[in-house]
Model the fold of this input.
Amino acid sequence: MSIIQDIRDKYAKVTVVLIALALLGFVLTDYFQSRGRYGGGGGASSLGSVNGRTIDPAQLDAKAKQAQAQMEQQGYPAEMAAQQARQQAWEQQIMSVLVDEEISKLGIQVNKREIGDMLYGENSYYKQVPQFLDEKTGAFSPAKAKEMIEQTLKKGTPEQKAGMRADIDNFVQYRLQEKYRSLFNKTVNVPKWFIEKQNADNSLMARVSYVKETYATIPDSTIKIEDKEIADYINKRKEEFKQQESRSISYVSFSASPSGKDSATAYAKLLNTKAEFDSTSQTESFLLKQGMNNYYNGYISSKEIKIQSKDSIFRTPVGSVYGPYLDGNYYALAKVEGVRTFPDTVKVRHILVNTQQRDSATAKKLIDSIQSAIAGGANFDTLCVKFSDDTKEDPQTKQYTGGIYDNVTTGRMVPEFNDFIFGNGVGTKGVVKTQFGYHYIEILSQKGSGPAYKIAYLTKEIAVSSETLNNAVNEANRFFGDVKDQKSFDEQYEKTLKAKGILKNIATNIIPSSDNVMGMGNSAEFVRNVYAADKGEVLKPERVGDNYVVAVVSEVLEEGTMSVSKARLIAEPALRNKKKAAILTQKIGKVSTLEAAATALGGKTIEVADSIRLDLRQPSALGYEPKVIGASFYPANNGKAVPEVIAGQSGVFVLKVENVTTTPVVAGDVNDQRKMLAQQKIGTLGDPTPGLRKGATIKDNRGK
Done:
């Protein structure tokens, strides 16, 4: 476990705008290099293209890895993080190309003065970096920031220089984004007349009488919708019936997970080692012989130990072994080697002189000199920046880590470092040797207190046996051999598998770029095989996760407009209600009075609705009926019956507007309303990227 990485993991909690930049879904990548970065073309040999510009696989992979690392730090499972990170990186690359094109057209630039402001000016993105804060006031020091940045660019290592230039590029990219988005948002305008009209409309209140007959009174089975009607409905609303390329499958799974017998075998093997594990005094050597190379020879707070059996382990006497107990897919033994009282968290600062770039004697001499200089009154920060090998930028977060680490918990550092900072009191200073080199450490503060344990773990995986594996393979092959299409697949399932409790599953909306099928787990290769098959084709058995899967391609959808059969579920209810409305309208006949309409409908009751507002967001006795509410406020209808039957959402209405009155509405100052509504529109409409994407030609070949 790298101390540098461990510290950064913890330090990520206080990262500043750089993390936010990395997480933004709308990121302008490598602006200064982008003009020559995107090659032409975009055929099947590339991952894809945007308006003819090829997506760079190396950049996509780098961004995906960066996003995945950040997601895993936030607790996402590895497989989920990998999938989401790849999709996020893909979307970012698309947006980068589209926005870069717009920036080029508009001639938007960032000048040197602005760059200086972003680095060490009033709007510096480094304002929260500890190394750039004034030692006395704790405030951001522009002079200190400028000095250290220039020193890094002139005298820093190649890695430090590259990191600083990358920071500058990121800052420029973000500022370009701000300018472009600001320019776009300035086009949002809410005129004064619009607010005044809206306020006047909202002050209106209507009282109506009506007769209603719901569509539910006519059975759906009596209304037939032909395919041609569906097709005509789709053609008039193509935007509503767009579909992306996707496939669906039916599949059965044959478990290749460890059996009960496999579990018992693992338990017995681990139990046989318990006596030797209990008696050994050379724990680390014993574990290495058993193939365990992750022994943590340090103390960890009980609050940081998350395993389910921890309470039983804590009750085990020092020197004794607890178990075997089940821990996920493993059986485990836990040997309690020590118990101490440790703080919950500590704040430290340190200087690392590593032994990877120099021999141990040279490193020891340098750390001793640093210790003597600090004891003589030398400035810690100055020595840290000049000599520490742990003040470089994190390659993922681009954060300047420095030498101060706050809220460190047990188990985050390598054991020697861990036990020094938790096992000594505040103010303790000293040199500690670890696998990375020599550390000069000072303990600045500590919080909380509780028991900490040194525990050695010996585990045995519950592995699937060849017998279990062969049984799964044989069952899958046997079923595959008996099926050749969807029909025989379904028949053989009913005949041979259903009685065994094996489920037939369905997976829909499998897109070409998927690397995960719902219910099956990580399965990118399986998805490619699904797309290599035709509709009705049965795929040969394939190992996906802990199962052997036999699947048949049940549906193939091409990108474009939905087919009639696919769109029927959406279009048919609307068309059916339209026909029902025509039947009910004919039954009512010519509208004269509400009483006549009520009689025509078989003696319906005339109902009254008070306090109807034009604002559809307001609750109404009429329900969500835009046409009816609109007719209630049409000036020509005031005081009389509406001359036509209204076909609403839930049924038909014969309406009489009794009266429309005006009521006071507290809406506030018109100018304040304009500003508020403008901000709302910017929030919902102020992102230009959906529009850019809609007008772009995007080719996605990731599935190929």
User: Anything to note?
Assistant: The longest helix spans residues 78-106. The chain has a mean pLDDT of 86.
